[in-house]
Design a protein that fits this description.
InterPro entries: Glyco_trans_2-like, Nucleotide-diphossugar_trans, TPR-like_helical_dom_sf. With about 350 residues, the protein is of the alpha/beta class. The chain contains 14 helices and 11 strands.
């Protein structure tokens, strides 16, 4: 059986670090925590799980801190987590099975990263990250912010998931780092250009975000998945600026990189729905349900291929007074989110509407 070192960087994580380490302590052989300047009880809580606590002066560069944390590992493989991540019970069991069966010829293992959950507790957004890597390969982290782990060799995709369960978020940290880099004259990589644009969008700086998304896309150096996401985020910028024409163009631009994704179809459906072009909207929402996505796709938001198009089709068929079809789509939406307020409201509405129509026809 291989041995595993957990390597983490933390700062002021007293609210979540105990939960994280509790979920992983039975899975790893060593816990290494690199603290970048905590002023709360983080270190005291960590000390209940390990004495391997290291200090690293924060230099506004996440890759540097993560690479330092990897240098502390002494086991065969390195696992990395953030303080607000956890292994749920099912994934703990899967991880144990992986650890007992992992061939030492494997250089890296990717896992799902569950980003958000719906009201029923089902995962509705996830990405895939390289999560477990062989120490002797000395894989490096790259990037001051939104850093990534560059890996190669023999790779496998695991069905294990890490769940991201944040309680708080420092909204200004990342954009501050990026703006400092830009002001210092540093030329951002295409990837950093994309993520800087994301930060600008998140801070409602829409015109500047558009500039950097365009800079990223016109470079033609981006990863295809980031190109597609950039198109959707450009559409969000134009939507916030009340520019439906450019919003529409940005969605269509995503077709340059791949076949239409369910998200693109839903966005186009909404565009036509807002104009009361019901049949056009129905066409695109139905496409969102037809398209099959790769279950191991690196970015997934399951709402665009499950309950969301069904709920919108419910509204559209109701507009056309096709009440039975509208009700059927509401029931299908309810199969994914049975306790959603909109689904329950629609259920009562259709019970009355269909009953009234049946009475009128008699």
């Amino acid at each position: 059986m291989v041995s595993i070192s957990l390597c983490m960087i933390v700062k002021n994580e007293e609210d979540v670090i105990g939960r994280c380490l509790e979920s992983v302590k039975g899975l790893v052989d060593e816990i290494n925590i690199v603290d970048t300047g905590s002023t709360d009880r983080t270190k005291q809580i960590v000390a209940q799980f390990t004495d391997r606590i290291f200090d690293f002066e924060w230099i506004h560069h996440f890759a540097a801190a993560r690479n330092y944390s990897f240098q502390q590992a002494t086991m065969d493989y390195i696992l990395w987590l953030d303080a607000d991540d956890v292994f749920l019970e099912e994934d703990q069991e899967k991880f144990k099975a992986l650890k007992s069966s992992l061939s030492p010829t494997i250089d890296a293992v990717s896992m799902n990263y569950n980003l958000s959950f719906d009201s029923e507790g089902n995962v509705d957004a996830l990405i895939r990250r390289n999560r477990l890597v062989k120490k002797e390969k000395s894989f490096q982290w790259i990037g001051a912010v939104h850093e990534y782990l560059e890996v190669g060799g023999e790779l496998i995709e695991s069905d294990i998931a890490v769940s991201h369960l944040p309680l708080t978020h420092d909204h200004s940290r990342n954009i501050t780092i990026y703006k400092t880099l830009v002001e210092s004259g540093e030329i951002l990589s295409p990837r950093d250009t994309f993520y800087f644009a994301n930060e600008l969008l998140d801070h409602s700086q829409f015109e500047e975000a558009i500039y950097y998304y365009e800079l990223f896309l016109t470079s033609k150096l981006g990863w295809v998945e980031d190109n597609i996401r950039a198109c959707f985020k450009l559409a969000d910028c134009y939507s916030n600026l009340n520019d439906p024409e450019n919003n529409f163009s940005a969605i269509l631009r995503s077709f340059e990189y791949d076949v239409p994704r369910p998200e693109a179809c839903c966005r186009l459906g909404y565009h036509f729905m807002e104009q009361y072009k019901n049949y056009e909207a129905i066409f695109w929402y139905e496409q969102a349900l037809i398209i099959k996505q790769n279950p191991n796709a690196p970015f997934q938001n399951k709402s665009f291929s499950t309950w969301l198009p069904h709920l919108q089709l419910c509204v559209l068929f109701d507009r056309l007074q096709q009440y039975e079809l509208a009700n059927a789509h509401n029931e299908l939406a309810g199969s994914f989110i049975p306790n959603d307020a909109k689904v329950l409201h629609n259920k009562k509405y259709f019970e009355q509407t269909l009953k009234s129509n049946q009475t009128d026809s008699q």
